[in-house]
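[Amino acid chain]
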Amino acid sequence: MTMTNAQRQENRYRTVWRWHFYAGLFCVPFILWLSVTGGLYLFKPQIEAMIDRPYAGLAYTGELASPAEQARAATAAVPGSVLHRFVLSDRIDQATQIVVGKGAEETRVYVHPQTLVILKTVGEEDQLMRIVFRLHGELMAGAFGSMLVELAASWAIIMLLTGLFLWWPRSGAGLAGTLYPRLRRGRAVLWRDFHAVTGIWISILAIFLILTGLPWANNWGNYLKAVRGVAASYAEKQDWSAGSAADARDRAALDKGARMMMGEHADHGGMVMTHMTGPLGALDMIVPRAQALALAGPVEISPPTGAGGIWMVKSSAANRPLRTSIGMDGATGAIVSREDFDQRPFIDRAIGIGVAAHEGALFGWLNQLIGLATVSGLFLLAVSAIMMWWRRRPGGALGAPAPQGMIRHSWLLVGLVVALGFVVPLFGISLALVVALERLVLRRTAGPAQWLGLRVA
């Protein structure tokens, strides 16, 4: 029996709708989680400023302690530690924040800049926004959690693309229910309109948000690292997190190098410092010179980790295009190297701009509000999807959508899905496995096929 063009279109539409349903089934819990944690992280500067408020506006009289004395007080507060980063204060009456470490474990110490009293100590990974960051990117489950987030993000793109495909107005549909919700048509129509209208308004922004978050993912990050190695003209450490395990290795490497250069034999290997001031004495010269550079804050000063005695002064601004990294000679204070954002490889600049936009830092509070609107829209999409499924769920079946209506331009969707499979390999692999499982197993078993709403082979 020959299938008519209308039947082919209807089957194509049913397939798209089912993929939308199944992608949403997997993604919805993650979307709810990532929307909440991502929304919190958007306001990291404000939240951290509120947390640090008790350590600003400190009372003092007379001269402040030298940077070297403050650093010594911080390392003494954590026995066995060594200086990892000295953070320049924004104001003179703020506590000086100094990060010290023992191996891969780092502690942030708040030091009174005059009395050297230790006002607070907190593990770097125990800070609220670091916890939110790991919850958002890895579910606090390391590489496995990162893989789940990457899979959910990839399938969320499919969910959004198929949603746009299904939303495409058909049969002379007007703007109502397409660009704005119909508020007087009952709850069923209202939830459907909330879902469809929210999707059309935020889908492009949501896809951008997902794509700019992928560089942090463990598997896609490794894929990007390989591409970056080919595209970049010279070897250089990437300026974004490669996952908790990689970050721990970087901290351990910094600690090892700092101990070698700041220990008892610091006068060897190219470092020239007097025994009177000790290995940290160079801070008294480097800190005021770093302050005079007026780099975008926060500015962190790291000790030498190799021969030559080069101290690194780095802007760690959330708005990454403002970042600058400067090397200073520990003996003379002379600038021996400088790298601004526009000197980095093109791929690093593209990712840096994307990451800054993802974190809501690229263009101030407006960026934060756009990000908040996007994650709020994703949250509403997930909630409305749950409500629609709950209201129409059948007994004895999952409730995959039945065929409905017609739609055109299906090859565009297929092309986008295939392209995404190549761009995000983990998604491509999972897609191939899902298709194989459906065709070879699920459709050949009547019970599971009927429960899932599949056509029995």
Observations:
- The longest strand covers residues 96-102.
- Residues 264-276 have pLDDT under 50 and may be disordered.
- DSSP finds 14 helices and eight strands in the chain.
- The beta strands are 82-87, 96-102, 105-111, 118-123, 299-302, 310-315, 324-329, 335-340.
